[in-house]
Amino acid sequence: MRHHRRPTRGTGAIAATLACLLLASCSAGSTATGGSAGKNSLNIGLTAEPANFDFTKTAGNAIPQALLYNVYQNLVKLDQSGRIQPQLATSWRLSKDRRTYTFHLVKNATFSNGARFTAEDAKFSIERVSSDWTVAQKSQMDVVDTARAVSPTELKVTLKKPSNDWLYRMTTRVGAMFSRTGVSKLATEPVGTGPYVVKRWNRGDSITLARRDGYWGREPHFKSVTLKYFKDPTALNNALLTGTINVINDMQSPDTLYRFQNNPKYKVIEGSTNSEVVLSLNNSSGPMRNRKARQAVRYAIDHKALMDTCWAGRGKLIGSMVPPTDPWYQNLTNQYPYDRDKAKKLLKESGEAGHTLRLRIPTLPYAIACGTVVKSQLEQAGFKVKLDQLEFPAAWLSTVFKNADYDMSIIGHLEPRDMQTVFGGKGYYTGYDNPEFRALLQKADQGTKKEQITYMRAAARLLSKDAAADWLFLLPMLTVADKDITGLPVNYVSESMDLTGLGRS
Amino acid sequence: MTPAPDTAPATASASGQGSPDRPDDVLTVRNLGVTVGGRKLVEDVDFTIRAGERVGLIGESGSGKSLTALSVMGLLPDGLRATGSVRLAGVGHDLVDADEARMSRVRGKEIAMVFQEPMTALNPTMKVGRQIAEVLLVHRTRPDRASARAAAVDLLAQVGLPDPAAAVDAYPHQFSGGQRQRVVLAIALANDPALLVCDEPTTALDVTVQARVLDLIVRGVQDRRSAMLFITHDLAVVATACERVMVMYGGRVVESGPVQEVFTRPRHRYTRGLIGASDLTAVDDRGRLATIPGSVPPAGRFPAGCVFRNRCAHATEACATRPDWVPTGPDSGYACFHPVAESGVRGTAVPTNQEAGRG
Amino acid sequence: MAEQPTSAPLAPGPQTGPVDAISVRDVTRDYRRPRASVRRPSPPVHALRGVSFAVPQGQRFGIVGESGCGKSTLLRILAGLDQPTSGSVAIDGRDITGLRERQLRFVRERLQLVFQDPMSALDPRMRVGDIVAEPLVAQGHRHRKERVAELLEAVGLRADAANRYPHQFSGGQRQRISIARALAPRPKIIVADEPVSALDVSVRAQVLNLIADLVDELSLTLVFVSHDLSVVRHVCDRVAVMHDGQIVETGSTEQVYEDPQHSYTRRLIAAAPTLDRALSGVSAADLNRE
Amino acid sequence: MTVLDTEAAVASAAPDDRRRRRPMTGSLLVGGFIVMVVFGLALLSFVWTPHDPTLVNPSARLEKPSLEYWFGTDKFGRDVFSQILMGSRTTLFVGFVAVGVAAVVGVPLGIVAGMAPGWLGELLMRGNDLLLAFPALLLAIMFAAVYGASTLVAMVAIGIASIPHYARLIRGGTLQVMKAEYVVAARAAGRGPFSIGLRHVLPNVSSLVIVQASVGFAIAVLAEAALSFLGFGTPPPTPSWGRMLQESQEMLSVAPRLAVFPGIAIAVVVLGFNLLGDGLRDRFDPKLEDHR
Amino acid sequence: MIVRLVKRIAVLLVSLVVSSVLVFAFMAVLPGDPARVALGTSASETAVAQLREQFGLDRPFVAQYLSWVHGLVTFDPGTSYISHTEIGPQLADRLQVTLWLVGAGMVLACILAVPMGILMAVRHRRPSGLILSALSQAGVAVPAFLAGILLITVFAVGLGWLPANGWTPPAQDPVLFLKQLVLPVLSLGMVQGAVLTRYIRSAVLDVLREDYLRTARAKGLRPMRALVRHGLRNAAVPVVTVLALQLATLLVGAVVIERVFVIPGLGSLLLDSVSNRDLIVVQDVVMIIAMAVLLVNFLVDTIYLMIDPRLRGGSS
Known about the structure:
The complex is a heteropentamer of chains A (505), B (359), C (290), D (292) and E (316). Chain B has helices at 65-73, 100-106, 118-121, 128-138, 145-158, 164-167, 177-189, 207-224, 235-241, 259-264, 269-278; strands at residues 25-36, 39-50, 54-58, 81-88, 111-114, 195-199, 227-232, 244-249, 252-258, 326-329, 332-334.
């Protein structure tokens, strides 16, 4: 008599596979070694995955972080301490009138599509920035008048007016060298002179870079490097703890550092970045137009307590929009020491006490953490604060960044030397419009190196005295890695996460 | 309903049985009771059914007649407990507290049952033929599926279904109420049970269909010399289908005896009232029917002593104690202190009634 | 059923007395079944195939038939709850076919229904007082409280039953409440659909007596539907036998029961078991014989 | 109207009360108790909380549970117990909005679909099923993208997504009620469809609504927790158990209690409402119950 | 039978069209101009206009809608504004990931729920039944992501038996793929299993009350045998409905598990595209989910036909 089986007859097979799976994994015993198969392959954990590979058209730091200096190379690059070093240009000279740079290029460099790198490619890349690029940084090339390929290995670039800043910009994405025959599919197939090429992209999960044979320069240690992306900081930590990755590039949850510090298997490196966590104030409209009210805000914030609470004391206190790795850095934290009573007095004097300040923060880990502390401290100083979150990037970019519909916000400005763009530019969301400040910046840019430092320092002091914003602290560069990984960069100053120097002892 | 405390000899058992366990006795029920959470729904029910004998069990709602049937089958719903003894000829153990293993061997083989509601009695997603064959295969009265299926076709023919060969592959929803009840009957009679229990088998059917099903039941039982326990509230149906009848009220058998005897010379006041109320031809001078005053109390909430005394015109203090069972024959008797006089004429429930007598 | 339905001629002679309480002329009602096959639409179901009869004022008119014979459909059409496919129905002389709900007011006042299943006839969530008063509320009568008490007394229940709930009453009592509700708007016609089929024998007699008393006292016109021949025979003066959507025979109760003309009626009467016939030796097989 | 026969008078209402007094099932008791406690906490939080839940107190960072801080403090030094207390308010608000939206739209839709003639009922149900194609979380994410993440937005989305379940359930109940003879009687008495719906259908399906509401409450609380975990739920500073759970994830190995307390709170509330739902279902007429 | 099927297919198609219109309309309302977000806020107006033109965003609504639907039907859902890459393959990968996760999760749920549900119904009055019932209530009350977090803390970080998170396509490294699947499937399966158990319990309880079960007992079948031969097939109908509902909600509901275990599933893609305002991808994902739900409902209906002969038409 056919025995009528229960309706789940089909599941028998699948149940078997799941059961043996459990057995297989338990018997694995030792910590699952995860992805790091061989000795010369490396897995790095990051937080923000690039949308595509074309940083000429897509904003955001994720693309240059992965590709610059690894797939693409520049004429000149930035080293750990912020000094400009040769890369595709072996040497360069600046003319007496400080308007013409002459670069001598390496002879044997080739692109990953086989084409040779010549001065013509360099000329093509520089001119292409103004013609084809759409991102904001493209304006950094406006100062270029002409670029001439004197010979295959010599390039002459003439500026409209002297600019110390320009050479520094050539170390960033605008200085990346493209092959004349390799710009057709930039979004999906980047062609550069660097040691690595993109091997595979499991979208939403990881990008794998492989070392290309026939690289003209010194071969980096790792044959393949996989960049794994984690939205959730805890998942990032767990990945390192279970060996799925070997390095956490930019740790976003400082409170969990203790799990790695006193653990012999790992090492923690704390360096600095260009990312100033700015309490931006809306200078152009609303209660923050009042200078006294802005100063009251700066006195009301206890920066040390804030950094301890929301970023576990990691990072560096700064007084203005200049990170320590910039030559014209000076410690301005003493201009507005924490003084709640003075803040209360100034707020009363400013006549803005009645207004409720809208603190509109993006949904980023440091912003959410600091937002709570800032709101609490300001309220203790008599301010009325309403906190709301705007989904990053879309909602925050359109509401705060583009329409300046805010009173206060918290955002990290991670572009290098961005004091000029954030506070000098017209129509920028901070709404700070000070002709004296702009004049100082211009003098600094066109003056000699020494003049650049004195004028930039004056500009930073003016910005801080004017309380154009409040600088909460400088985000630290927290790198956590397996003990045996060498050559890890301490600071994160250039836009690139340079993989070429890494190795395994 | 033990007349006196337990010491009484078994012979004078409550239902006035003659000598117990006569050779062709099929079902012997002694002191059957059904309780739920302390409340007694059925009390002291005793009776015996011989092979081929058709016994009716009549009563209104809440009288406990269905519970009696279900306790014989061992299919009481959750929470209800049966007490006393139910013995079936040819079965070694008592049926009351038998475990599932033993009872499942008896059900469908020695005892079979037909239920009231045909529309829900069959599994809607299984072919009718397979549901019949199942009872044969479960008890191995047919060796394999093919022969069971053939037997099913034959059974369908026996219960008068049109085109049994096609019917065996049809689903229940393709049959009318009457036809489905005949399928249930086919299942019940499949293994020639010693006892067929019918719980209001034709109540849900129309008159013409009822006639055909009753005929099938009676013939089915007679052909197999099976004993039958027939439960209904309809006096006419029980009188037509059964030879002997037991009247239940308030969970107790108040009167039993041959149909002719009980329905022409009722002795218990309730039986008389019931007959009077069910006779729609006997009307008083103003054309009104005889009625039994009051309404049936909810199950388990009947008065102590005689359960009918709260509605009986002749009740006296004596009725407060339980009336003894007065045997009037081998299978008949009643339990009433003030029975209807021996010579009482049929249908004189209410003095003002003139003789009905209509055919 | 090859035979033609025989029915006594309509109300004898010209309309002498007052107009009929109910007059039904050639009413049919078809239902369309969902398509069973792709090619041709499924055949319609003919619930009523040309039914005609008349019920003069004050008469007790019985309708007997087995399930599926169309009696319930007929009742719904009489009560103006359903429209016939063709033919006409008149209540107290006024044609009600094709009217919209608002124009059926006068039917609501004149004709009320009593139902079969005591468990389903009363809204379990409403108090008895509100149930009985519902027709009064619907038709805008005032001082309802006294009227409800009066009605409950009339059906043999204490006035204080008004603030109890239906589940606190026995089957018979719930049927009494149902009757009280039907009498609320002082209707002229009561249509009872199997009012006693779900009751125990002893309680059935009480309710039948109550109906008989009320019909006499309020000189109501009664339409009494049942599948039980003996009940109809006791209650009604005239009876119509329905089968398969048609009235196959009409006549006075005595004439139809004593001398049934139509073969179906004969089979119906033959198949119905009664105590007397059983006691006089009629067996189950006899019932089954044509 | 004379009293016609004495026997009828004797047969007046039966003395004893036959209401099917079913015992209060265990789940009703436990579920009801838990729900009462949550309501109590929410009301209490309006009046008193041991500390100000939003007050950042850097010096009292990550304190262990103590007499002063019963559940200890979180990484901003905020008292966890006060947050849980205030969080109960958000939880109830979440439940009411979600259930409210679903019931206010779903119940009438269900009743109309049940009472309407066949084809209209079918049409309404087809439209209703269409809404099933947009599961709760999907709607919540899309709404959050348009109107910005907030508790109200999230819960309205959850509410809209559960409308089809209410409508389908109530239509089932309505169809059963419409088959009852007391509805035919009401029509015969001259009652219009609207008053029948209000007087007869709604009271009789109300038991279904209450049962579904309590289960709906539990679903809403779980959904809010999930949304907060994804960052779409209740924005700071309003305390919410879901967000506390999400924030605690980071500190799991140093202060697991930060995850345990909100986790237990959510589980208890969900358990409470589910048990209440089961208990109510057994309590009301079993024949109308539809094991959702 | 065929009529019912034809009707169901018609309803399915109409629902698909209507839901596609709904989705498209909703997307049009979404604030934030996708081209502007794609290019970053400081892009020039001309660049934005040029991108809008490239993506056809400047065409009238109906034209945009038609080309979108055409893309869907021919399995070429166009290119994403943000990543400039083909959406088709990306959707396919993500769908496959989610189907693996949800499929295995639901299978585990069934393996847990069917026996437990039946047991709880059969022992409905006895203590063992009550204990199981309490257990399943607790299972329902635990949020899935909490279960996930706890499993990671214990089995991955704590004992190190399994990887904490991550996803590897099965073809690439089957063993790692299975290891990474265990914890997410467990946390999904247990919670959904608890929910399913409650429905199976009530469905079986209903069936136990049916008259034909009593008939089966009267035929001599023991209680468990009667339930298996007659009860389960009829109890399957309500259970299949709930299963379909769970499957439908999990397509996006699993995003919570995807986020905890860093699995690139459909839900995560939806979340990311919504925050990046990658409208075309959002539209496609929502449409896929709607199609999946409607398809599942359609399958459920056909399963009804197979289980319940009454629906197959052809009455006596």
